[in-house]
Amino acid sequence: MQKPRFRILGQSWRFWAMVLLVFLVAQWIVMPRMSDFRKTAWIMFPCIMAILCLGLNLIFGFNGQFSLGQWGFYAIGAYASAIITYRFGARVSLPVEGITLQLPDLIQKIIPVAEMELFHFDAGKAGLLLLATLAGGLLAALISAGFGYVVLLRLGSDYFGIATLGFTIIVQNLLNNSDKVIPETKGARGMIGIPPLTSFFWVFIFLILAIVVLRNLLHSSTGRAIVSVREDEVAAQAMGIDVLKYKVLSFVLGSFFAGIAGALYAHLYAFLSPQYFGSEKSFDPLIIIVLGGLGNMSGTVIATFVWAITLEGMRIWLPMGFEAYRFVIYPIALVLLMLFRPQGIMGRVELGFLRATKWPRRAGTAVPAAPDVGTETAA
Amino acid sequence: MQKLLNRIAVSVRKSPVIWAIGVLLLAWLAGRARQNPVLFAQFLVDGIRLGFVYALVALGYTMVYGIVRLINFAHGDVFMIGAFAAFFATTRYHWSFVPAMVLAMVVCAFLSVVIERIAYKPLRDAPRISALITAVGMSFFLEYFTALNFVFTPNFIVFAPQPLQFKSWNVLGVTVSNIMFVIIAVGTICLVALYYLVYRTKLGKAMRAVAWDKPTARLMGIDVDLVITFTFALGAALAGVGGMLYVVAYPQIRTFLGVMPGLKSFIAAVFGGIGSIPGAFIGALTIGMVETLAAGYLSSTLRDTIVFSILIIVLLLRPTGLFGEAAKEKA
Predict the structure, then answer these.
(1) Which of A82, A351, B24, B104 could form a disulfide bond with B82, CB atoms 3.0-4.6 angstroms apart?
(2) What chain B residue is nearest to A333 in terms of C-alpha separation?
């Protein structure tokens, strides 16, 4: 008999306390000491990128479908949500007055703000962002379901990659001409006037949700089916696994993540340009997941931060007038890393709660294994 | 002939809708051609010109993919380097057309061999994705390194004076330039030479053997590494010619020049069945033609959408491309 325990999304209270602690430390201790540029470029943008890359890792790393279409779904999510908030952003407002705390001097050494504002936010705008993000994700998922079902049925490996690359280019090309249908997007000139609603809170929540959902999915029977498709399609089929179903499932879920990441990105810089969603950048998520290690969630998250911090940091670290060299150093580093560590930074090593479940030694008995492991009942 | 007709009949019976759409499209095109035959002929001429340039680049993609199963994303940038080599040879050193072209070929071949030795050869036994990432890395490196101020600068450069005196004639209303004849002539010579090399010489036989089965080819005494390096050099030399012809036809150079033509040539290679030499040629001509016709008749801003949609549709109908099955001998 197992004691009922406190669980949200299959995680214990210790996990959620840890998440809260990380959030508070980042929000109050780390972030106030950083400039705005670093806050967005080093913390918020990598979180968004990590959601995107986790989605691609599900498609390519875990399910083995070589996809270059992630960037296209990112663009779809970004534009769909931006249009919603552009239309309603000015009208919806429901401010919630929180409490303001005066911090004593001693605490100000740790948290460098004089007044701490708690629960001081605009509920209407937050609801709108949540709605727009979900709408962006759902639209990306819907389109990917249609595209994925048709394309995955016929194409595999490299040909699927080429078809999805074509998809990305088509999306960019259509966005360039989108102002004829939807005037707000302003086509190739770029969309301005999006309310900058994304804050660290939202980015963090969605990243944690993405990680937990992906972890629970992959440690379930569905997840094992998804991985089995990568390992050997014929053998998976022989075991009674509907290969196409799991391919489409992981493609749709990965694209849903991409749509959510796109929505958060749209409200981060409050500016969208089809130039950014071009085919050259569509390799970024692929590069990140290979750097982190294919089929490795912790590797993906770590690699995203390393990638974003070095790439943006080189703007600051390189001497004046040498900023253009960062795109010379970056490919060299990429090639060297691939030559000396082709399996990625983390290889196959997962960290913490993302690790594969340890099965109980004596599977036949009803007595559960060590109660503190707590992962064998997950989702 | 009987066999071909039979196959077409079976295919019509299997998927009548697709054939109906195809026939409707052709009929629509014929209608537009009847309205203004001169314009149509002009589009065809331009399409052939573009298609030959794409063909030269697509051959490099297709040969490399056929042998090492690698999508060589750096190929489009080698094409750009070829264009720059020709540009400096003609404008700074006043070389004439043919020496400049030979220089572009040599520079590209050398560069490609270096890239292959550095970035691809050590990863031949690693997972294929690693080599793909290094290919993307080399592509970024070539683009951004050459965009530095002391190399080629990130700006557009106008290719003038040209190595060829531009002349154009008006044949029944269609404007034909000498550049077009040069492109077609050079392209044809290169294709014939390549065909002879691959199908009539010992080296070509070795290439086909390596593409067919690497371990067995090695057992037969073929130096597989040498053949792969040679394939890279050959493809890059053709890309160098293509780069020069491209900037002679569209005289504006930039270090990001190779991205879009590279992608288009690559999809041309896929379109014709990647790994097949005649397929790459036919595919490139088709893509060039489709691009000009789509830009002319439908929408010049949406032409990428049209080209890539056609690619996806063709892949869905024939997952290995037009000549994917027929070309058993991949070179």
Answers:
(1) B104
(2) B137
Helix or strand run (H / E) with residue B170: strand B168-171
How many domains are there within chain B? 1
- At B36 the pLDDT is 83
Tens digits of per-residue pLDDT, A152-187? 888 877 889 889 999 999 999 999 988 888 888 888
The band of B328, judged by pLDDT with boundaries at 50, 70 and 90, is: very low
Res B324: pLDDT: 67
Nearest in space to B172 (alpha carbons), one of B262, B44, B319: B44
The answer to whether the CB of A155 falls within 8 A of the CB of A244 is: no
Partners of residue A320 in chain B, C-beta under 8 Å: none
Does some domain include residue B61? yes
Q: What's the gap between Cα B170 and its chain centre?
A: 29
Structure tokens, B155: 């700006």
The answer to whether the CB atoms of B311 and A154 lie below 8 A apart is no
Helices A123-154 + B303-317 axis angle, to 10:
50
Give the list of residues 6+ apart from residue B217 with CB closer than 8 angstroms, or none.
B206, B209, B210, B224, B227
CB contact under 8 A, A328 and B312: no
**Mean pLDDT (whole number) for A67-94:** 89
- B150 has pLDDT over 90: no
Tokens for A70, please give them. 């992630």
Judge: B316–A150 Cβ closer than 8 Å, yes or no. yes
Query: How many residues are present in chain A?
Result: 379
Provide, as residue numbers in chain B, all residues whose Cβ is less than 8 Å from the Cβ of A330: 140
pLDDT at position A359 is 58
Is pLDDT larger for residue B210 or for residue B298?
A: B210
Looking at the DSSP assignment, which residues form a beta bridge with residue A116? A101
Enclosing domain of residue B233 = 55-257
Interface TM-score (ipTM) > 0.85:
yes
Instruction: Answer yes or no: is pLDDT of B75 > 60.
Output: yes
- Return the residue in B64, B80, B134, B265 with the most chain A beta carbons within 10 A, the one to mutate for interface testing: B134
Average pLDDT value for residue range B307-323: 84
Q: Check CB contact under 8 Å for A166 and B123.
A: no
CA of A376 to nearest chain B CA: how many angstroms apart? Answer: 32
Tokens 């492991």 sit at which residue?
Answer: A373
- Give domain status of residue B125, yes or no: yes
Q: Per the CB < 8 Å rule, is B149 touching A342?
A: no
pLDDT band at A4 (very low <50, low <70, confident <90, very high): low
